[in-house]
Amino acid sequence: MKNTDIFEILLETDEFLALDKPSGLLVVRDRWDKSQETLLDLVCSYLGKSAWPVHRLDKEASGIVLFAKEQKARTFFEKQFQEREIEKNYDVLVQGETDQDGGSIDLSLSEDLDHPGRMKVGGKRGKHSLTRFEVLERFKGITYLKVYPLTGRQHQIRVHLQALGHPVICDPFYGSGRPYYLSEMKRFYKRKEEEPEKPLMGRLALHASQLTFSTPQGDAQTIESPLPKDFVVFLKYLRKFWGRGF
């Protein structure tokens, strides 16, 4: 694994680059703010040439993003995504305690014309969207899920989990957006008065953990991204203070 100043390189070959994107970084420039630096900018600077992301990851999410280093590889990988041959899974923390231990969410999605940049369930132009999930752990008011999107719509996981009644925590679009602090979990918590308390989790709690695909040589390749530090620390305190013994 190689490190740059902003992202980690999980695997690099002559044809592709698998990166570990931090939360808060756009993959490509969007239509809302064209001045922001993007992961694509950084990759092209690192390589000294053009590159192409063959899928997307939301700005506030973290985890694996795959880039093609040449046009032939770009076409090859994009075809796999279009034909749903690439397997993806995500670690996600959601609001509330789910009654189900797992299941599937089969709801079409379309652009929310009343809220540009967002998606919604249904609509005349809704596209088939399918997400599978399983419960890993339950805490007081929070559930830890492993999520498998079987289609690749914009904001699919976030909208589907909202429709299930369990939006991703810290999601400003489809949930409350509120951060979580140690002071609300730990009794008799004390902090320095002159220092504002930093949230344990203050960003979209969605991490792209694993990607399995075929290489141009025909080999199966699985890329894994470990949970980032904020996820690990938040889970530690959830288990300690809001675990099943609460």
Extended strand count: 13
| CATH topology tier name | Pseudouridine synthase
Please trace the helix and strand order, writing H or E for each element. EEEHEEHEEEEEEHEEH
Structural domains: how many: 1
Strand fraction: 25-35%
What's the average pLDDT? 94
Cα shape = globular
Poorly predicted regions: none
Radius of gyration, taken over Cα atoms and rounded to an integer in Å? 19 Å
Q: CATH class, anyone?
A: Alpha Beta
Within CATH, the superfamily carries the name: Pseudouridine synthase
**Helix/strand class:** alpha+beta
- Sheet with the most strands, sense and barrel status: 11 strands, mixed
**Number of DSSP helical runs:** 4
CA distance, first residue to last residue: 39 Å
**CATH architecture annotation:** 2-Layer Sandwich
What does this entry look like structurally?
- The chain is of the alpha+beta class.
- The chain has one domain: 2-Layer Sandwich (Pseudouridine synthase).
- It is 17% helix and 30% strand.
- Strands 1, 2, 3, 4, 5, 6, 7, 10, 11, 12 and 13 form an eleven-stranded mixed sheet that branches. The protein has a two-stranded antiparallel sheet with strand order 8-9.
- Strand 2 and strand 3 (16-21) form a beta hairpin.
- The longest helix is centred in the C-terminal third of the chain and has 13 residues, at 229-241.
- The termini are far apart.
